[in-house]
């Protein structure tokens, strides 16, 4: 009797597991909600095996489709995102991918033990939020930079085009103060930066926008990326997204001329690759 009920328990667990996996989004889709559209987009842009490669590029995994990479989803409705609250941030509405947050929490604790208080000032921003930042700067620089290309380049000193921000991915955070000088000698957060530069890599974090790169955004001492995830996302971005994919915001047509993918998305610190 006992044996029979054990067997039936195992059987029903198996059936349950099977039906759970049926519920999951198909490869190539992000959230189940966006399944139809994502599948079509992926199949329309199916990655071809690159010349000289033995294997085709890795199959598209959930959460690594084009919409996800370009921030066209709602993090609060995404199953892999969690809310981040005090003491890790003093801001409202912060969200990160669960793995990023777990690693950040360990880093936060270690920093705290050494008297360094890490504070998240910005985390995940989706396409719409990045568009709001971009469009307001587009207006701000209208007089100073009347030409579309020059104006886009001015904004790109510190802000990504909507669709091209690492903040879309749930892997990147801005810490303490969005200001290089405050993290340098004599600055309020110098100790924070020095600690990050020495220890962030132990927790998987890397500074993508360092000084001395030949392309991309200017140095950002406050921006840190969780590379166990973001390295793969960077690779996927290169495989799936082209400069022609940017649209839906002011000056988006300058993306091709500026070569946003090559110069900005991929113009990062080599150590973060
Ligand atoms: Zn940032």
In short:
The chain is α+β, with helices and mostly antiparallel strands and 273 residues long. The protein has a single domain, classed as Muramoyl-pentapeptide Carboxypeptidase, domain 2, CATH 3.30.1380.
* Total domain units: 1
Structural Rg: 21 Å
**CATH architecture descriptor name:** 2-Layer Sandwich
* Total beta-strand segments: 6
Strand order of the largest sheet: 3-4-6-5
Shape descriptor reads globular
CATH class placement: Alpha Beta
The biggest beta sheet reads: 4 strands, antiparallel
CATH topology: Muramoyl-pentapeptide Carboxypeptidase, domain 2
Explain what you see.
- 40% of the residues lie in helices and 8% in strands.
- It has 273 residues and is of the alpha+beta class.
- The chain contains 10 helices and 6 strands, in the order αααββαβααβαββααα.
- Strands 3-4-6-5 form a 4-stranded antiparallel β-sheet.
- The chain has one domain (69-272): Muramoyl-pentapeptide Carboxypeptidase, domain 2 (2-Layer Sandwich), CATH 3.30.1380.10.
- The protein binds zinc ion (ZN).
- Zinc ion is lined by residues 122, 167, 172, 174, 223.
Task: Present the secondary structure layout.
Blueprint: H1 2-23, H2 35-44, H3 66-69, E1 81-84, E2 94-97, H4 98-113, E3 120-122, H5 127-140, H6 148-155, E4 172-175, H7 190-199, E5 205-206, E6 223-226, H8 227-240, H9 254-258, H10 260-265
Antiparallel strand pairs: 1-2, 3-4, 4-6, 5-6
The chain binds zinc ion (ZN).
């Amino acid at each position: 009797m006992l044996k029979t009920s054990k067997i039936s328990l195992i059987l029903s667990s198996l059936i349950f597991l099977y039906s759970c996996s049926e519920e999951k989004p198909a490869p190539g889709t992000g959230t189940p909600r966006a399944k139809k559209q994502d599948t079509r987009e992926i199949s329309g842009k199916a990655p071809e095996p690159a010349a000289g490669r033995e294997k085709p590029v890795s199959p598209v995994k959930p959460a690594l489709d084009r919409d996800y990479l370009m921030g066209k989803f709602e993090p609060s409705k995404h199953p892999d995102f969690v809310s981040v609250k005090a003491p890790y941030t003093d801001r409202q509405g912060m969200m990160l991918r669960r793995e990023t947050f777990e690693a950040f929490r360990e880093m936060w604790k270690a920093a705290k033990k050494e008297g360094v208080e890490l504070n998240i000032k910005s985390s995940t921003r989706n396409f719409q939020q990045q568009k709001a930042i971009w469009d307001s700067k587009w207006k701000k620089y209208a007089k100073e930079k009347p030409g579309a290309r020059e104006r886009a380049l001015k904004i790109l000193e510190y802000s990504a085009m909507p669709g091209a921000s690492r903040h879309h991915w749930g892997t990147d955070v801005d810490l303490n103060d969005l200001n290089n000088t405050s993290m340098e000698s004599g600055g309020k957060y110098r100790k924070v930066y020095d600690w990050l530069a020495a220890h962030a890599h132990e927790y998987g974090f890397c500074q993508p926008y360092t000084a001395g790169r030949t392309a991309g955004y200017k140095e950002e001492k406050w921006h840190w990326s969780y590379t166990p995830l973001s390295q793969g996302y960077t690779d996927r971005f290169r495989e799936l997204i082209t400069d022609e994919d940017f649209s839906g915001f002011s000056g988006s047509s300058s993306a091709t001329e500026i070569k946003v993918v090559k110069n900005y998305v991929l113009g990062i610190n080599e150590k973060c690759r």
